[in-house]
Design goal:
With 386 residues, this protein is an alpha/beta fold. Helices cover 41% and strands 16% of the residues. The structure holds pyridoxal-5'-phosphate (PLP).
Length: 386
C-alpha cells in the first residue's frame, strides 16, 4: 500500500492529524469530484433528459453492485439508504412485533441501536434485554452472557459489529451460530465496519446489516446501504411507502403490496450525485485492499495502545487482544475530562479525536491513511496532557 500516494489524495492529511473516521472520514478528492461532476452534468444537461436519466440509472445499478461486492452479497439483497440508522429503522420498524418478543442487545451500544429497540418496547410491548458488557470484554464472556440472556421468547439479536465506544469487535459469527437454529434473527449495525474491515455476509450469515458511506469508507454524508438476506426480504414491511412498494396491475384500483423485492424499501427520488460519490469511495478503499486496510488499522491501533499503556496517568479502555480489537482506540487521562482533552489535542496539536460517553474516554480512529509518525505525535501530545 502506497501510503504517501493515498495521503496525497486526501487533502485533510496535509493540515491535521485526522483520527476521527469513526465519526466521519475525510474524503479523497476523487469522491468529491464524482459528486460535483454528476451535479454539473445534471445542471448542464437537464436532470430529466434521456441521457441523464439513463446514466443515472447506471450509476444507481453500479453503486448497488459495488456495495454488494463490498459485502459479498447479491445486488438483489442490497438497498441504498441515507445512513446506518436509516437502514436499522427500515428493518426494526418493518418487522412485526408481538407483546413479549425479546430483543437482545448490549450495554456498550450506540443510541442508534438502543433507541430503535426501545421504541419497539414502547409501541408493541417487545422486551429489550441489555446484556452488560465491559468495554474490553473477552469473546468467551460475551458469548456466555448472550447465551444466558436467550429465552424461547428471543426474536432478535441486535448488535454493532464493532462497538463505537472502544472499538470492541464482537464475535458475530459465533453469536450467529448460537442463535440461528433457535430461529432468532440477527440485525447488525455496521457503522464502524464498512471500509474498516473486510466484510462477508455469507460468512457472518446474519439476516440484516446496515452501513454508512461517510465513516471508514470516506464517502459523503447522506448515503448508506442496507443488506437483507434474500429469504428475509418478505419479512420486512416497508414503513415509508412509495411506488416500488406495490405491484400495479390494472390501474389505481388494482394493486397489491410488493413482498419479494428489496426495491419495495426504496422510497422515491434520491441523489444520484451521492450515489456517484459512494461508488467512488468504495472503489478508493478497494484499490487499497480491504484485507490490507484491516491489518494496517489493527497494527496502528496496537502501536498506539502499547505506547499509551506505558504512559503514566493514561488508562487504555479498548481491548488489547487482537481478535477483539479494531482501528478504534479509547483511553482516559487521570484527572482530565475527555471533552477538555479532545479540545486541547485540537487546539495545540491539530489532532482531531472525539470523546465517548460509556465508558467515559477519548476516542481515536486509526485508518489506513494515518501513519506511524502520527501515532507517535498522538502519544507525545497525550503524554504532555497527562
Ligand atoms: C455504532 C454506530 N451506529 C450508528 C451510528 C450512526 O450512524 P449514521 O449517522 O450512519 O446513522 C454511529 C455513528 O457514529 C455508530 O457509531
Amino acid at each position: 500500500m502506497d501510503i504517501d500516494r493515498i495521503r496525497e489524495q486526501i487533502p485533510v492529511c496535509r493540515r491535521m492529524v485526522y483520527v476521527n473516521s469513526g465519526w466521519s472520514g475525510p474524503s479523497p478528492v476523487s469522491v468529491v469530484e464524482a459528486i460535483k461532476a454528476r451535479l454539473d452534468y445534471e445542471m448542464e444537461q437537464g436532470p430529466t433528459t434521456p441521457d441523464v436519466r439513463e446514466s443515472g440509472r447506471e450509476i444507481q445499478d453500479q453503486t448497488r453492485l459495488a456495495v454488494a461486492n463490498l459485502l459479498n452479497a447479491a445486488p438483489e439483497e442490497v438497498c441504498l439508504t441515507k445512513n446506518t440508522t436509516d437502514g436499522i429503522n427500515i428493518v426494526i420498524n418493518g418487522l412485526t412485533w408481538n407483546q413479549g418478543d425479546e430483543i437482545i442487545t448490549c450495554s456498550l451500544e450506540h443510541s442508534s441501536v438502543l433507541v430503535p429497540s426501545y421504541f419497539q418496547q414502547w409501541r408493541h410491548g417487545a422486551v429489550v434485554k441489555v446484556v452488560a458488557l465491559a468495554s474490553d470484554e473477552g469473546h468467551d464472556e460475551i458469548l456466555a452472557k448472550i447465551e444466558s440472556a436467550i429465552t424461547d421468547r428471543t426474536r432478535l439479536v441486535f448488535l454493532s459489529h464493532i462497538q463505537y465506544s472502544t472499538g470492541l469487535r464482537m464475535p458475530v459469527e459465533e453469536i450467529r451460530r448460537m442463535t440461528k437454529d433457535r430461529g432468532i434473527m440477527m440485525l447488525l449495525d455496521g457503522a464502524q465496519t464498512a471500509g474498516h474491515i473486510a466484510l462477508d455476509m455469507k460468512a457472518i450469515d446474519c439476516d440484516f446489516y446496515a452501513i454508512p458511506g461517510q465513516k471508514w469508507l470516506l464517502g459523503s454524508e447522506g448515503i448508506g446501504a442496507l443488506y437483507i438476506r434474500q429469504d428475509m426480504i418478505p419479512q420486512v414491511q416497508p414503513v415509508h411507502v412509495a411506488g416500488r412498494a406495490v405491484m400495479p396491475h390494472d390501474g389505481p384500483e388494482d394493486m397489491e403490496p410488493e413482498i419479494a423485492s428489496i426495491d419495495k424499501l426504496k422510497g422515491s427520488s434520491t441523489s444520484t450525485a451521492l450515489q456517484a460519490g459512494l461508488l467512488e469511495a468504495i472503489s478508493f478503499v478497494q484499490a487499497a485492499g480491504m484485507d490490507e486496510i484491516e491489518a494496517r488499522d489493527l497494527d496502528l491501533a496496537s502501536q498506539l495502545k502499547q505506547s499509551l499503556g506505558e504512559t503514566p496517568g493514561v488508562k487504555v479502555l479498548s481491548p488489547i487482544e487482537r481478535s477483539g480489537s479494531s482501528g478504534l482506540v479509547s483511553f482516559a487521562i487521570d484527572g482530565m475530562e475527555p471533552e477538555d482533552a479532545v479540545a486541547r489535542l485540537w487546539e495545540r496539536d491539530r489532532i482531531v479525536a472525539r470523546q465517548v460517553g460509556f465508558p467515559h474516554g477519548i476516542r481515536v480512529s486509526l485508518h489506513f491513511f494515518n501513519t506511524e509518525e502520527e501515532v507517535g505525535q498522538i502519544v507525545e501530545a497525550v503524554r504532555r496532557l497527562a
